Amino acid sequence: MIHSLFLINHTGDIFLEKHWKSVIGRSVCDYFFEAREKAVEPENVPPVLQTPHHYLISIYRGKLFFLSVIQTEVPPLFVIEFLHRVADTIQDYFGECSEGVIKDNVVTVYELLEEMLDNGFPLATESNVLKEMIRPPTILRSVVNTLTGASNVGDTLPTGQLSNVPWRRVGVKYTNNEAYFDVIEEIDAILDKSGTTVFAEIQGVIEACVRLTGMPDLTLSFMNPRLLDDVSFHPCVRFKRWESERVLSFIPPDGNFTLMNYHVSSQNLVAIPVYVKQSISFFETGPCGRLDITIGPKQTMGKTVEGLMVTIHMPKAVLSANLTATQGTYTYDLATKVLVWDIGKLNPQKLPNLKGSLTTQAGTPKPEDNPSLNIDLKIQQLAISGLKVSRLDMYGEKYKPFKGVKYLTKAGKFQVRT
Amino acid sequence: MRNMSTAVLYNDQGGAEAAVEAGQESTPTTSSSGAAFGLFSTDFKKNEDLKEMLESNKESLKLEAMKRVVGLIAKGKNSSELFPAVVKNVASKNIELKKLVYVYLVRYAEEQQDLALLSISTFQRALKDPNQFIRASALRVLSSIRVPIIVPIMMLAIKEAAADLSPYVRKTSAHAIQKLYSLDPEQKEQLIEVIEKLLKDKSTLVAGSVVMAFEEVCPDRIDLIHKNYRKLCNLLVDVEEWGQVVIISMLTRYARTQFTSPWKEGAIFDENNDKTFYESDSEEKKEQTEAKPYIMDPDHRLLLRNTKPLLQSRNTAVVMSVAQLYWHLAPKHEVNIVTKSLVRLLRSHREVQYIVLQNIATMSIQRKGMFEPYMKSFYVRSTDATHIKTLKLEILTNLANEANISTILREFQTYVKSQDKAFAAATIQAIGRCATNISEVTDTCLNGLVLLLSNRDETVVAESVVVIKKLLQTQPTQHSEIIKHMAKLFDNITVPMARASILWLMGEYCERVPKIAPDVLRKMAKTFTAEEDIVKLQTVNLAAKLYLTNSKQTKLLTQYILNLGKYDQNYDIRDRTRFIRQLIVPNEKSGALNKYARRILLAPKPAPVLESAFKDRDRFQLGTLSHSLNVKAAGYQELSDWPAVAPDQSVRNVEVIEPVKEWAPLVGKTKKSKSEDKFYSDDEDEKEEEGSESSGSEDSSSSSSSDEESGSESEEESSEESDKTSSDSGKSSSGSEKSSSESEAEQKKKKKTKKAPLKKNKLTAGDSDSDENGNGPVAQSSSSSAESSSGSETDSEDDSDSDNIAAQKKKKSEAKSKPKVEVKSKKEVSLLDLDDFSPAPTNAPKSSVVSSSLLSDLEGLSLSNVSSTMQVTTPSFGPVKTYELLHHMTGKGLSAKYHFPRQPCLYQPSMVAVQVILTNSSDHSLEEIHIGDRSPASLNIHCFNTIERLEPEASVTVSMGIDFSDSTQAANFQLCTKEDQFSVSIQPAVGELLMPSTMTEEDFSKEQGKLLGMNETSATITMATANTSSQAIGKQVLSVANVGVVSSSQNNVHSFSSAAGRFNHENKERRVWSQQIRRSQGFKHAVLFSRENPHKSD
């Protein structure tokens, strides 16, 4: 299975290596660097590479490459999923997954990697289990540890490992018992030039933050579960009950976790919250072009659209942009050729507009393709599909927990073609 | 100097390893002195202070040093010269320090083998540690040290750990198997033995790891899987996600060798009946076999059924592996269910998308229909990475058909304009493929491509030319306009491939453009020397073709070009030129070929087929690395073709080997009619095991013959009845039961005596209470628990009456078809056992009743020596805790609570008795309360009788038996009323899985002596002074565990014993208890709770 892992930063330095079997020299990464060179953008590096003696499977996250070395046949998704799990764990432990954080906590990261794989086969990947073995660093604990000489490493088998609820540790205690659920929906859409929808769908996720004492057994039910077309669950969810009753019944892990992902059935028409009027044109004569974008509300269900942002990947030939925005600010990054217009809240009375001219490099032919716009937005207190949580029941414990559900709609991959 | 001192230190540390000392001397010398004189003097200095820190006495300094050392390892810097200093700390008490030393050791042991040996004894000691976590990590490190000398030690450790009571340690041993195998492949045979043993393990923790070991060590030993196949299928849902992936891919290969192909004709029919297979009526199956060409093996169906829920996993690798399983194993029309899940994965990370899209690309070639409804999910976004875009394009092209081509082409138009030119070029290729595949749009595509010829981007134009060339070849008739257009563009095109393509087109169709072609040749003659090789070759070609068709105009031009080519720097071009000259220019030396020159050069050429790049990928199993790379990767296991004839399916039947079985007759032996007892115990046994229908049918045929005298009308009745009940049972495998030849024989025996006990039943039913009283106090308590608490005398009479009828039916239906009976018996047996089962717990004292033959049967069992000392006793009553099973809100008025009565279970010794109080808090009466589906499907539950009616506000207490298989895994089942069903689950506390036993102090210490070492756990508990009285301690212990008190002569030692097959533990309040004794070890068991001087404190 997984033989070795190298962490590589964006400049191509290997700053951490871990071997689960015998040591493999760093030179194996040269093949990767070659491919990295060829791909120009780091995103374009093929995730699976073949070298004479090894196979390299890599992921790119947080400007870092996680490169694993494989020697024999193994499902590539197995490795990819695991590498992402490693990145998730690091994020979970230290708040972010970046080179700096990993370098600062190199020992803890190393201990984590040691626990997560044995001989290249995943051993413990549940956050709750890992946290019992290697406690995440907190300021308080590091002070206490230096004073008492206690360590961050547990010496007993995590209770979760042996139970049938490996995701939850026993003996959880809170003074405030609370369970929060965020229903977050993302609209993936492609709109064409005229504003008609080429493709739109809604993907949702329920993120939970559960801090409950003991072994609570929760049941979450929906007003309209029929909306959900395809779902995937955290292992804690009892699939049988979902199949028979369409309720989510589970013993939750402690802390933050993703309860379920869902896809809203495609029969329902997707409400597109904003419309975009745009005209981007480049002139045949002279090194310039014009840009004019207006955004207005469309189907917002009476809610305010916030966090509105437009990102445009300009053609390489565009040198600079001289624009005026009626609302918000815009920036144009010369190196990456990305124009970002940060609008903020959408005011239906006064529609935001961005207008002005673009300068293109003299002598190059006019770009024939107009760049597409990527829209980012947020609508609080609304699940655009109309999904509603009807109730949350708790069994198995006596106290009354504090419960809360929040809805949020975001733009996922929302693209307007021009 | 330093070296000397380390050597001395080693002597202190591990004296046993003195022999190794000599070899060790040299290694550190070289490394440290090398560093001293070498280039790394700064490095060396740094490590020098680390060394000092490591050798200091302060724990914190050592830890700090180790952290820095691990930091060095992480950066890939060499710190091997610290080995002696580090390895000393291997026995440190500080757990973090120890772990870091382990990390270091694993990293460098291979380089410093001799020194590494010094640490071995520490691990050997730790392998015996009472803490399972320490045992496991010791094994982990020991097996990770790649030092060939310790192979025998590793082997021994693995063997021991494989029999450990902690599933976690067993899991670790499964991992160690692979490590040892890679270190020394010669151990294979022995390791296979261990694998075979571990495969039988029932823990979900072990399953994934041992299958991994199997895949690595002996993937071809498919015979090891047979017996465990069903178990693996049933456990699958509960195995951790990584294990699921490995098991699924192994089972895919297994299924391809063991089952016949479901893809043949007639496969469609079987689906209507698949339920029947599962309820598995063997006779029906036979009929079907005659009628239909293909019937899916129930085991095959079991696999498909049990993997399906995993499509909802959050782990993409699991979803993918289920998808490939369905692709390779499911009947064609069932494969579609994986589509949605695969499309869902496209929302995941980029790398996941890449792999999933590759697999979809392969699938979509063979099965367009699967993904067509999701076509729009494959639309490309400008932000996608290039490799994602190309894959999506590939899939869209595969999905194109007459109906959707216009949509797809419109989409392609957008892509062609993409700024990503590589992608635009790929789009043009895709358009070309659509044009050849769908004849309706060929012209449209061609026109579109011609328009692209005036595109400003060169790569786009070039690609268009190449594709147009291919398209024209397929339809050469009426396209001279396009060729002319291309000739006009020729001057502006600089991409060699495109120029070459145009030249080839000119030559090929020179007769259609008689005026233009010579002109193009003229231009080429001017620029010939400056062209790329590929263009030169095509120029020579064009010249030759024109010479043959239009020699008048082109003769001189051709000769000129041939002369240029003759002196070209590239030998390919020189060769070609010579060849062409000889071929086309007639002279006296030229041979016979000359005559055929025209036919050779201007032969009609077959059109190229534009094919998907994924065309041949289906030779690899989906989801594999090989598939992803399109190259056979090392260690790839070929997926075999379906066998023409299915191998013997009975190999998957599980033999009756478990101690439970042995226990059962023991239970039975106190009964008045032993043969009847046997019948039941048998029956119960069989419930536990899984088996094939084939042997089941054998069974039923033999029994039906012996049962001919039974009335036909009742037979009908019973089959009706059992039909009904069989639909109640959700246990998919319940039908596929198997009985060993032994039980078969017993059955026959039973048949003979059947009638007598039946009568007896009738007689005794009414006064069963008093009858049982005679059997002793235990019997009474258990019988009352078996009855519902509210049950009145008359009630029970009624019940037992109906039972007797039921029992009669049951026997008959048994005769007809065994599996049905099983289901039925589950429901009915609880009443019969008023007679037959209640005395069960008092087995030992009554052993004299056992017939000599039975006794001899029993003698071989591990039981015999234990039974003298061990008796399962009535429980000492502690406070009874009640748990909620179903809340009346969720239960629509039906509420259920349960508690563990702590009585031996009547139905089966391996079961735990549970009492359930059902209350109706709604305003209408509830009808037909019974137990429905359970999960895991193999869960063995003794259900209570269906409660016909429960009035509002009424409550009834029923008892059930649940076999938790000695694990704390929750038993999930459905509580059904007439209208509704509610999923509920019972989670046993460890303490409830035990059975108390009475024993003398001597016996206790004797048993305890057997259970030292790994089986032992000890801990210190602080308790308030008030609690130190023996009574208080006893009370506390009893409140958490069902144990018996062993009278003790010493005042400060309290012993508790529990037993019998279920658990062995040393326990302290609320700690993780106990290690399981597996059944095979029979009834050796039980040390419990011995403690010296309780520590007093606040």
TrEMBL record, chain A:
Recorded topology in the membrane: Peripheral membrane protein
GO cellular component terms listed in the entry, alphabetical order: clathrin adaptor complex; cytoplasmic vesicle membrane; Golgi apparatus
Location, primary (coarse class): Golgi
Keyword terms of this UniProt record: Cytoplasmic vesicle, Golgi apparatus, Membrane, Protein transport, Transport
Compartments it resides in: Golgi apparatus; Cytoplasmic vesicle membrane
Domain of life of the organism encoding this protein: Eukaryota
Residue ranges constituting the MHD domain according to the UniProt record: 176-417
BP-aspect Gene Ontology terms: intracellular protein transport; vesicle-mediated transport
Matches recorded under PANTHER family: AP COMPLEX SUBUNIT MU (PTHR10529)
Free-text function comment from the UniProt entry: Part of the AP-3 complex, an adaptor-related complex which is not clathrin-associated. The complex is associated with the Golgi region as well as more peripheral structures. It facilitates the budding of vesicles from the Golgi membrane and may be directly involved in trafficking to lysosomes.
Family (UniProt): Belongs to the adaptor complexes medium subunit family.
Name of protein: AP-3 complex subunit mu-1
Organism classification: Eukaryota, Metazoa, Chordata, Craniata, Vertebrata
TrEMBL record, chain B:
GO CC annotation terms, alphabetical: AP-3 adaptor complex; clathrin-coated vesicle membrane; Golgi apparatus
Pfam (any one): Adaptin_N
Domain AP-3 complex subunit beta C-terminal, first and last residues per copy: 824-969
Subcellular location: Cytoplasmic vesicle, Clathrin-coated vesicle membrane; Golgi apparatus
Region (Disordered): 671-826
GO biological process entries: intracellular protein transport; vesicle-mediated transport
SMART domains in UniProt: AP3B1_C
Matches recorded under InterPro entries: AP3_beta, AP3B1/2_C, AP3B_C, AP_beta, ARM-like, ARM-type_fold, Clathrin/coatomer_adapt-like_N
UniProt biased composition (Acidic residues): 682-692, 706-720
Domain of life of the source: Eukaryota
Compositionally skewed regions (Basic and acidic residues) per UniProt: 814-826
Bilayer topology: Peripheral membrane protein
Compositional bias segments (type: Low complexity): 693-705, 727-738, 781-793
Keywords: Cytoplasmic vesicle, Golgi apparatus, Membrane, Phosphoprotein, Protein transport, Transport
Composition bias, Basic residues: 748-762
Family statement: Belongs to the adaptor complexes large subunit family.
PANTHER family the UniProt entry points to: ADAPTOR COMPLEX SUBUNIT BETA FAMILY MEMBER
Task performed by this protein: Subunit of non-clathrin- and clathrin-associated adaptor protein complex 3 (AP-3) that plays a role in protein sorting in the late-Golgi/trans-Golgi network (TGN) and/or endosomes. The AP complexes mediate both the recruitment of clathrin to membranes and the recognition of sorting signals within the cytosolic tails of transmembrane cargo molecules. AP-3 appears to be involved in the sorting of a subset of transmembrane proteins targeted to lysosomes and lysosome-related organelles.
Protein's name according to its UniProt entry: AP-3 complex subunit beta
Organism encoding this protein: Sparus aurata
Name of encoding gene: AP3B1
